[in-house]
Every structure is written in C-alpha cells, then in structure tokens.
Design brief:
Blueprint lengths: L1 E6 L6 H14 L3 E6 L13 H12 L5 E3 L12 H12 L5 E6 H5 L7 H7 L1 E5 L10 H10 L4 H5 L6 E4 L8 H9 L10 H10 L5
Parallel strand pairs: 1-2, 1-4, 2-3, 4-5, 5-6
Helix pairs in contact: 2-9, 3-5
The structure holds adenosine-5'-triphosphate.
The site of adenosine-5'-triphosphate (ATP) has 18 residues, from helix 1, strand 4, helix 4 and helix 8.
C-alpha cells in the first residue's frame, strides 16, 4: 500500500512531512510519494519555479528513504489534476496495489469540486489528515459521501485498491507555506518551520523575497 501527497510545496515544510510520516506509520504504507503540482487548478500560481520546488522537495526528503520524490506532474504542461496523476500512477503500479491519496482537511473540504472526484475514488482511497484551523466538512453532499465510504480502518484500505475514506489523526502543526513566504518577504526567519536544507535553498536562490 502506498501513499501519495500532491501539493504546490511552495515551499515544502514540516506540516507536510510530519503528518505524512504519521500516516505512513499508522497505516503501514510502504512509501509516500510527494508529487509537486505543476500548476494547481484552484489557486494562484506558485512563486517558485517547478525546478526550484522540486529541488526543495528533494532536499527535504533526502534523509527518509520511504519518502519518494515523484516529478511526473512537472513534466506535464498546464493545470495539474489529481485524477490525471492517479491514472498515470495506476498505469505504473497496476490495478491491485492500494493507493492512498493523502490530503489535509482544508483540501478535502473542496473534494467534490475537484476534477472527476468519483473517478478519483475509483483509483485510490482518500486519507484525510486533520489540519489545525480547518473545520470539519459540512457540505451535505460531502457528508453523504463520507457516510457511504468513510469509517474505513487500516485493514479495509489494505484489502481493496481504492474507494474508501479514512480520517487520520496526525501531529497538529499549524504551519503553512503562505506564512513561510510572508515571513521571508518581511525579512524574518521561517527557521524551525521547515528543514534547514530547504531554508538553505530559499536563501541561496533568494526565493520569496520580493
Ligand atoms: P499554501 O499556504 O501555499 O496554500 P500549504 O501549506 O497549504 O500551501 P500545499 O502544498 O498547498 O501547502 O499542501 C499540500 C497538501 O498538504 C494539502 O493536501 C494540504 O491540505 C496538506 N497540508 C499542508 N500543510 C499541512 C499541515 N500543516 N497539516 C496537515 N496537512 C497539511
């Protein structure tokens, strides 16, 4: 069973890394693949280039062999859809391997507005990592979906390849890339919110200053 965490990673920080490790350990995932998005569809474009974001993800994951950088989205032009990423991963991994798409609660709240959400559930399980400051979903259609697919446990995920929803408790770290960018822009240090190796790249390249 493998995990997939897509994101803009502009930059990657401990709010991505520790919850992903909590989830890997709680569910017994073999690996978590970090997939930097070329251009997220529902938000402003990232400030750092794809090459810079990929380099930051690589630096952040270097010490954890079960975390894998997956640059497949950056090779594609235009908007990045989780659906396309999962189709491509399924083609690589075959139909049997359970794939868990990891999202924070904030991203999951918008799930039904994503491109082909029900087809996503045909390709992967959803694992929702509780994120501080993000309220539980309240949209009735999403609640109905959780009613039908939720309540899953680790064994339910491992025994089927896709289609279930699991809420995973993770270390609560109130860290966002938005705040890190704002600190750097204000000339303040974001140190200890993200790995030093990522901060070194931000400093070297002069990212987020202007
Ligand atoms: P930004 O502030 O630029 O919107 P972000 O910090 O939310 O960025 P993303 O790259 O957009 O980071 O997030 C990728 C995924 O990681 C999303 O599913 C998001 O919900 C999740 N995530 C990000 N930060 C946290 C956190 N602190 N705790 C749990 N999940 C998180």
């Amino acid at each position: 069973m493998i995990g997939v965490l897509g994101g803009t990673f502009d930059p990657i920080h401990y709010g991505h890394l520790r919850p992903a490790l909590d989830t890997l350990q709680a569910l017994g995932l073999e690996q978590v693949r970090f997939v930097p998005l070329n251009q997220a569809v529902h938000r402003a474009p990232p400030l750092a280039s794809p090459v810079e974001r990929l380099a930051m993800v690589r630096a952040a994951l270097a010490s954890e062999p079960r975390f894998v950088v997956d640059g497949r989205e950056l090779a594609r032009t235009g908007g990045s859809y989780s659906y396309d990423t999962l189709v491509s991963l399924r083609a690589d991994l075959g139909p049997e391997v359970p794939i868990c798409l990891l999202t924070g609660t904030d991203a999951f709240r918008e799930f039904l507005t994503w491109h082909r959400p029900m087809d996503i559930l045909g390709l992967a399980h959803l694992v929702v990592m509780e994120r501080p400051g993000s309220p539980a979903p309240s949209d009735p259609d999403l609640l109905a979906l959780i009613d039908g697919r939720g309540g899953a446990r680790r064994d339910d995920l491992a025994s089927s390849s896709a289609g279930r929803i699991l809420f995973q408790r993770v270390t609560q770290l109130d860290i966002s890339a938005t705040r890190i960018r704002a600190l750097v822009r204000a000339g303040l240090s974001p140190r200890f919110l993200l790995p030093d190796a990522v901060l070194d790249l931000i400093d070297q390249e002069g990212l987020y200053r202007a």
